[in-house]
Design brief:
The chain is mainly α and 360 residues long. The protein has 19 helices and no strands. Helix 11 packs parallel to helix 13 (226-242) and helix 17 packs antiparallel against helix 18 (326-343).
């Protein structure tokens, strides 16, 4: 193995190939080290499916008693599965991480709680998300790490805003921003200020919202945080739509969509497509809206996301009705009802019944 490393030293190290050679040579310790490095390399390139393949192979070679190694590999695989929307794998990895974290330090338990929070949000398990956010904040504060505390404040703020508790939401976001500024945590600062902007936008405070989004975009780019950059761009696109600036909205949203496709963040990709469909509808281009909504629906179905499938079908029904395709619209509304009930989202049902009433 040393000879193979020497051949590639100074250039790109073929970690995956080195891992396979090490495994074939009966050197499991070297094999799993190379495979872990291969997984981390692919994850950094947002090649999430390849990252999962390498992490999974490494896990098969990792003894149960090497807890720290297993934790590292599981955390890597769970993150890649989250971006791809592979919820069954993500849930299974989180279950193992929960068990391993019981005897871990505060930082590890905070990390796992934050991962559990993101998973619960993705599957719309609100009570689980609230519990995970509160657990994350308690364990992060006990551990004292500023980045984890700031992220936990953001998690709690997200759940408080669901209850429209503006004061408490803003309190947690300002705590996160203060920590981010103090410790130069640009990516976390970006997330917090964009959330503040969303609160402003929902109360029609558009100038304040735009300032927050632009600050969030600047901080995300400073941190080279592609997820945060795309979210800030998406938020600027939605805001521009509300302000009837459809050209700007399309530019922002198309840039957000390109980033989300590049990094393989499928759930967020579907969101950008839905927002582009909204712009097309406002411009009266229903055929383009139909195309974008169908693409969003395809992603929701492929990743098993009944919540977003329900909204996608509801929106698709609206567009079909506008095109005069009433039978097709009714079929989509009926499918939206089924998906909404599976997701336990009553707002989908309410929207569907309202839209059906408009067709009578």
């Amino acid at each position: 193995m040393a000879a193979l490393e020497a051949v590639h030293r100074g250039g790109t190290m073929p970690y995956a190939a080195l891992g396979l050679h090490a495994e074939a040579a009966g050197m499991p310790d070297d094999a799993r080290r190379y495979l872990r490095l291969a997984g981390e390399e692919e994850a950094a390139r947002f090649s999430n499916d390849q990252a999962i393949e390498h992490f999974s192979k490494a896990l098969l070679l990792t003894p149960d008693d090497t807890v720290d190694e297993r934790l590292e590999l599981l955390l890597g695989r769970e993150a890649a599965a989250h971006h791809l929307g592979w919820r069954e794998m993500q849930e299974a990895d989180l279950d193992v991480l929960d068990r391993l974290a019981v005897d871990g330090d505060h930082d590890l338990r905070a990390d796992v709680a934050l991962r559990r929070f993101e998973y619960a949000r993705a599957i719309n398990a609100t009570e689980d998300a609230v519990a995970a956010a509160e657990q994350a904040l308690a364990t992060a504060e006990a551990g004292g790490d500023p980045s984890r505390i700031a992220l936990a404040h953001i998690a709690v703020a997200r759940m408080q805003w669901l209850n429209r508790d503006r004061a408490d939401t803003e309190h947690h976001l300002q705590e996160a921003i203060a920590l981010s500024e103090q410790h130069d945590l640009a990516a976390i600062e970006s997330e917090a200020v964009v959330l503040l902007g969303i609160i402003d936008a929902e109360q029609d405070r558009y100038p304040q919202a735009r300032r927050c989004y632009e600050r969030g975009l600047d901080r995300a780019r400073a941190a080279k945080d592609a997820v945060g950059e795309a979210w800030a761009l998406n938020s600027l696109g939605v805001l521009s739509t509300k302000q009837d600036d459809y050209g700007a909205a399309r530019r922002y949203l198309e840039e957000a969509l390109a980033i989300r496709r590049r990094i393989g963040y499928r759930l967020a990709e579907a969101g950008a497509l839905t927002n582009l469909a909204m712009v097309a509808e406002m411009e009266g281009d229903y055929e383009d809206a139909l195309h974008q909504q169908q693409a969003s629906l395809t992603i929701a179905r492929e990743i098993g996301d009944s919540y977003n499938e329900g909204w996608a079908r509801n929106n698709l029904g609206l567009t079909l009705a506008m095109l005069g395709q009433f039978d097709a619209a009714v079929k989509e509304y009926e499918a939206a009802l089924r998906a909404g009930r599976e997701a336990g989202e009553v707002l989908i049902e309410g929207n569907v019944f309202a839209n059906l009433a408009l067709m009578e």
